[in-house]
Amino acid sequence: MGQADAQTGHDGDRQGWRLRARMRYLYHGSSPAAVRFRLAVIVIDFAIIGFFLAAPILREAGWAFYVIDVVVALVLATDLAARALAYTDIKDWLKRPSTWVDLFILATLLFPVWLYNFGFLRMLRLWTLLSSDFFWRTVGRKYDDTRVEEITRALAALVTFVFVATGFVYATFRSRHPDLHGYLDALYFTVSSLTTTGYGDITLPGNWGRVLSIVIMLTGITLFVRLAQTLVRPHKVKFPCPVCGLQKHDPDAVHCKACGETLCIPDEGNH
Question: Domain total for the chain?
Answer without folding.
Answer: 3
